[in-house]
Amino acid sequence: MPARLLLIGIWTECFDDGIFEWKPLTLKMRIFPADSVDVAPLLDELVSVNAVMRFCADGKLYGAVRNFCRFQRPKKPNSSGVNSDEIRTYVCSEPQSSEPVRNQFGTSSEIVQQMEDGEGVGEGIGDNITISNEIVSSASCDADPAPDPKITRCKREGVPSNAILEIGSNWNILASSVGLPQIDTIDGDRKRSVDARSRELAANYEFHDPVAGFAFLFAKVRGSPFLCGQVPSRDGRPAFRATFDWCVSPKNFRKIMEGNYENQIRQPPALRAVV
User: Could you tell me if 199 and 147 are in contact, meaning their C-beta atoms sit under 8 angstroms apart?
Assistant: First the structure.
């Protein structure tokens, strides 16, 4: 489990080309600031399962995340500047082209029509699903983007119960690591929201596996100091902390996926002398 959490955290540390600096101590402080965790063996574990690879460039150690670029559509991508042909293949980086990328948002104010909550919600899916932290599995980003019959059924009828359990469990893992509210069940409006967001993940972000899509969403939450309650309020009230329901609401979901909350660090208000 720590290795999976580390991989999710590494997603937020990568350049847009899927490269991150291989600095175990720095990664530990940024991803596990309050935990007694040795990141070096966790990185070795990720290498052993081919989730990341380590390489050297210009005398420095770097890491690359497998298939990272398959699910990235940055409007203004940055680059580590150390990509080779082997690394580009590993991270699934496509060569630059004048052809538009399928399902990529434009840089103008164009808004792609989305399915809203409750549309096409299927029947026969359990109305009450209890989340258990014991039911956890890794969310692989190495899924074949070609839809299969199960995915097609998921789009019509909603997210299957086993995937709902994984999504809820992965949220609770994230929540427990950064101090966000955990959830007990996914039912009613909450499940309809998960179904609707899963369709958006497939249609607009090429996440045909809803578990992998929500893992990517949760990684963006994990990488936002504001959403994790680490940004002080200007009026002295408790810092804002994202909840599961807040993250899966239509507008907030799109803002998170578009990176609106990334690296938002607000300075605490200056103290004023009392005369």
Answer: no
User: Higher-confidence residue: 137 or 73?
Assistant: 73
* Parent domain of 77: 2-90
Q: Is residue 101 in some structural domain?
A: no
Domains in the chain, number: 2
Over residues 235-251, the mean pLDDT reads: 92
Q: How confident is the model at residue 227 (pLDDT cuts 50, 70, 90)?
A: very high
Q: What is the pLDDT of residue 155?
A: 45
- One domain for residues 148 and 244: yes
